[in-house]
Write a structure and sequence with these properties.
The protein is mainly α and 246 residues long. 72% of the residues lie in helices and 0% in strands. Helix 5 runs antiparallel to helix 6, helix 5 packs parallel to helix 7 and helix 6 packs antiparallel against helix 7.
Length: 246
């Protein structure tokens, strides 16, 4: 790949294009060239961080994060990535410190709040974690993963009715998310509402036909209903929307 005739902004743009298309090693090549020309380019260093992270070269990515911080300690993205990497390396307390800093610098970044919640949950702080997931979904109502983990955390705390209500909100904001429909169905089943639960599970299958755990849960619930002499027939085809099953 020849970059000789490109200016630094074009080289960075090329790196970002490669990064977006999943060509991470080629992206690193571009960002390295940009860094050679401008050693303090935060944009180039952050591009290299993202590329290395996606290559799972976590130690190298951490070194680059530290370089970004040495140039601009207020760059929340570097603290965020450090936190995520430390969490993946199972260094949860260090991860929490980095994510705290990321949230402090950018309190409106839903991803930092979500990741902080995950770490707090793993450290045995589910109530504080829930507050982080709350903030993440307020900032970004389409953040399905944050909705889902909050629902699962409520279920683990035995707060099934709250989880049930939450999944209604989550599905309203993310009507095409299979995992949310599946876990809404699971929650209804926990609440003893198997006939209603199976409709959400069928909706999950309609949205994601290869969702194996949905078939497993569906079969368990249908078997349980059959033992009670209740047989559920869903005659029409549907596109995965729960509205088609009501």
């Amino acid at each position: 790949m020849s970059l000789e005739n490109l200016g630094i902004s074009d080289i960075i743009a090329k790196g970002e294009q490669l990064l977006d298309s999943g060509k991470y090693q080629e992206a690193v090549f571009c960002f390295d060239e940009a860094i050679k020309r401008e050693p303090n380019s935060v944009q180039a260093w952050l591009g290299k961080v993202s590329s290395l992270f996606n290559l799972r070269k976590y130690q190298d990515a951490l070194i680059c994060c530290d370089k970004v911080i040495s140039i601009d300690a207020q760059k929340s993205a570097a603290w965020f990535v450090k936190g995520v990497i430390m969490s993946r390396l199972d260094k949860k307390k260090e991860a929490l410190a980095h994510l705290d800093r990321a949230v402090e610098l950018d309190p409106h970044h839903a991803g930092s709040l979500y990741q902080k919640g995950l770490v707090l949950r793993s450290l045995g702080e589910p109530l504080v974690a829930i507050s982080c997931f709350d903030e993440a979904t307020k900032l970004d109502p389409s953040y399905a993963a944050a909705w889902d983990i909050k629902g699962l955390t409520l279920l683990q705390l035995g707060r099934s009715q709250e989880a049930n209500t939450l999944y209604d909100e989550a599905i309203k904001a993310n009507p095409k998310n299979a995992e949310l429909h599946l876990n809404k169905g699971a929650t209804l089943s926990i609440l003893g509402k198997d006939e209603e639960a199976v409709k959400y599970i069928y909706a999950a299958i309609g949205l994601k036909p290869d969702l194996a755990k949905a078939y497993k849960l569906r079969n368990i619930i249908l078997s349980r209903l059959a033992d009670k002499g209740i047989y559920v027939f869903l005659e029409k085809d549907f596109n995965g929307s729960i509205e088609d099953l009501k």
